[in-house]
Amino acid sequence: MQNLPTKEHFSVPTTEQNYQLQDWQKGYESQRQESAYWLEDIEGEIPKDLQGTLFRNGPGLLDINGREIAHPFDGDGLICAITFKGGRAYFRNRFVRTAGFIKEQKAGKILYRGVFGTQKPGGWWANAFDFKIKNIANTNVIYWGEKLLALWEAAEPHSLNPATLETFGLDYLDSILAPGDPFAAHPKIDPSCQMDNGAPCLVNFAIKPGFSTTIIVYELAPDGQLLRRREHQVPGFAFIHDFAITPNYCIFFQNPVKFNPIPFALGFQGAGEGVEFQPKQPTKIVVIPRNPSQKSIQIWETKAGFVFHHANAFETEDNRICIDSICYESFPKVEENTSYKEVEFDLLSPGQLWRFTLDLKAERVKRELVESRCCEFPALHPEKVGRTYQYLFLGAAHQATGNAPLQAILKLNLTTGERQLWSAAPKGYVNEPIFVPKPNAISEDDGWVLTMVYDASHHRSDLVILDGRDLNGQPVAKLHLKYHIPYGLHGSWTPQCFNF
Ligand code: FE
CA 271, CA 66: separation in Å to the nearest integer? Predict the structure, then answer.
């Protein structure tokens, strides 16, 4: 089994601030510009052998015609594409033209309620019993089966032209999905699927909530064709944003929450605000075999915590499954009637990296704290998804303790416990890192770490390229964009170049 150095306890309050809340807030200004240009304002050099496209997605509008939305998770999806070839880079950004985006921009006002609290003007009376959903396509973007797909977990994907980012429209994945079917925003690519003779496959899921929850698992071939689809029932309500895979299993964390739909139905709050954390209930770990002929689901229990994102999972030779996840003490909710921009970071519990080990023989779950520094958005070598791995890259706080905005990229050596940190503090705020292996790499960390950084001193964003082997050193290159891109959610890398 993989050796894991761990720390058990921490509880040291923040002593010094390395950020200004006003700086952080500016990264949440809407960006209405859409353009395409060569990135020519560069510090350092773009590696000549870095070839492919980085796609990013995230909320681009934080207001509709001046009226602020309640939460960034309700913001319309803005896609960025940065193509690297021959030591040069080309930038393009464009909103996903969802039906709701087009209607609202035409009307010049909010027409839809958001899941995370955005309300139509006119008070509760104008919002009561309005269950219409706006597919905002803002959470992730992937290139698979020769389609560029903008994903939002509660509805269908939108397909886009990968060269121009023009929106084609809702995409049912060649009839794999029916109208209205959700498709989660956290697909995993199994680099070598044992059921497909070692070919890669994309594994994703969909949640249909209710008193009991339906989890649908989809597995798609590289050409986009459906390989496997299976529905599973899990008792109780579930709020599941992400999952993890191993060669044999899909693993879901059923966070201990209950859902009170009444204030939402009556127009007082968004559906997401009706999610209530239940600290006395256990987190349930749902283990589903990927082979559809094996039907038995296992459900394990561990201490209450809240997980949005999993870093990775793997199986060991001694019959264990390990899952590495960013876990919060509770559901990180902002105080009611307070703007998300006024969040008091110190009052919220940080996301921290935990390892959950399921001992299949002894039927026991062990939970260990791996990294106590506030962190989110884990990334790793794509060939290590579902396998034992050594290196993890994360967005992290500048300081080792307390809760704070993400300003640094942390590299964690899970074998030796060694940490490396590149920090953009005090003026920089990082997004999710993406690890791109070098061609002919000689080690797991031999590659580049790409991340968008909001630079509050210039009110613009940079694309920063870090050396995966040495995060402590200077960045390989900083590419200055002409304007800022609001803090994003997720993205992906593909070796293809579309606009050359
Ligand atoms: Fe996510």
Answer: 23
